[in-house]
Amino acid sequence: MMLRDALVDAVPRLEAAGVDTPRLDAELLLAHSLGRNRTYLYAHLPDPLPADAAHRFARLLQRRAAREPLPYLLGAWEFMGLSFEVSPAVLIPRPETEVLVEAVAERVAPNARVLDVGAGSGCISVALARLLPQCQVTALEPSPEARAVAERNVAALGAAERVRILAGFFPQDADGLGPFDALVSNPPYIPTAEVEGLAPELRLHEPRLALDGGADGLTVLRALARDGAALLAPGGLLAVELAQGQAGAVCELLASAGQWDEPESLPDLAGIARVVLARRSRATGC
Q: Is the pLDDT of residue 180 over 60?
């Protein structure tokens, strides 16, 4: 079988399984099976597919047709131009989160002290360390498996001197860590009742701890609005990612807390309000 023939067979199989991008997925899996990139694949489509690569490709194709996420099959995924190790222990980095990272990098000093709540793969922490070469990032992550992935990414991407990964939940394990110039988080924000309606890739494979935001999806966001100011220096920045339709509720939580200046929301590339920003009030007693 030629490489071209393997793709011709694979694409309709993935399409029938309901995969959104069957051609792209097939190409990436075939290139991964060969230990090559897609550029090599395009240049060698008439070449025969080696037997060992054919076996690897068949196994990966079967798993992708069962809706196992492509990044987990590849073992790595790109975020802000960097390749991060990913596994079912961590949420897959997504383009929407780049809006969050860029917003923080544009609003804090190069030597900012940053707290990342819910480190996951470490993508937010490492990306901020790359954009702000003098910053120091502390990342809080409750899952031991996720922490291990994050620590490997921090080391592999050369950020170990400026990013530290700590065990714990917010807010109970954040006491004594501040003050910070920024608090950033991509928290779980999907309402519990909606988790079962997610695509199989999310519902069956990505860590529920990183998805389920409680009954209204706002459990961690509520804690950040209530307790985040205590960890920030006056004027410090809070930046959170959220789901479509949650911006109004999060802004209300911030207003009710009485510790934040006027919040603002930022859209993602689809025009959805994806990030809310607020600064800790400088007023006396806040």
A: yes
